[in-house]
Amino acid sequence: MQHVFFIVDCSGSIIADGMQKVGQINDLIHDIVDNCVSAQIKDIRVVCFGNSARIYWEFTKDNFFLDIPPNRFGGRSNLGQAYTLLRDILNKENIQIEDCIFILLSDGEATDNYKLALNNLDSNNSSIRLALSLGNSSLTTEKHVSMDEYSFKNGVKDRDSFISKIMDCIK
What we know:
171 residues, alpha/beta, 6 helices, 6 strands, 37% helix
């Protein structure tokens, strides 16, 4: 069984220029979740990270995704905490890293030591990791991906290609 995890940047920079990026994030998640449900993926989760990381939403057949509200955005960009949370979830639930698809949505550089946490999560590069930059291309999104072709640098222009690539990765 495949497990799809969205890793969503909820730092203050997402709302710094208004609500456009918040809308992009929510619309994108809605579309991808709809496609995942159609593909019979039963484990879909959204992890938000800012000053801390937390599970925002988990899919159940009766629990459709609700937009991440503006008041959830703010603070720093602690991506490493999200990777640590994911590692803990995988260990606790005995989920194999090879069965995971991690989708990073971010607009800039992480502010913590995310590289170490990513290595602790997936040291053998066994998962599928895709990323979409919502702002300028960033090293954070480029370091997240498991293959160069999984990095998309423009949240508006690359949106459809990004969704298509995700769906290609789902077995």
